[in-house]
Design goal:
By secondary structure, this protein is α+β, with helices and mostly antiparallel strands. 24% of the residues lie in helices and 43% in strands. The chain has helices at residues 5-8, 69-85; strands spanning 11-20, 31-39, 45-54, 60-68.
Length: 89
């Protein structure tokens, strides 16, 4: 959760859900994701998705999507597909 520290200091930060490959959303076996929310300095609510994954060769990735709450419903399908498409080659 160290990568979350930047967001955890934001107003109203909340981890809403933790996801793994067993949920069917993440295709990466050694991955964990977080759906979160927070309010920025301009009082705009945000939805935040953070994915951490480790490849069997020891390399990994962090994937962040930060979206204003009012635009999230329009983009949710695209965001979900981006998360599903994450793979290691």
């Amino acid at each position: 959760l160290n990568a979350l520290k930047v967001f955890q200091t934001k107003k109203d930060f909340k981890l809403n859900k933790t996801i793994t490959h067993t949920d069917g959303l993440l295709q990466l076996t050694y991955a964990i994701g977080y759906w979160a929310s927070y309010t920025d300095e301009a009082n705009v609510a945000h939805k935040l998705i953070i994915i951490h994954a480790i490849h069997h060769n020891g390399k990994g990735l962090q994937f962040f999507i930060d979206c204003p709450h009012n635009a999230f419903s329009e983009l949710e399908g695209e965001i979900t597909e981006q998360i599903r498409s994450l793979t290691f080659i």
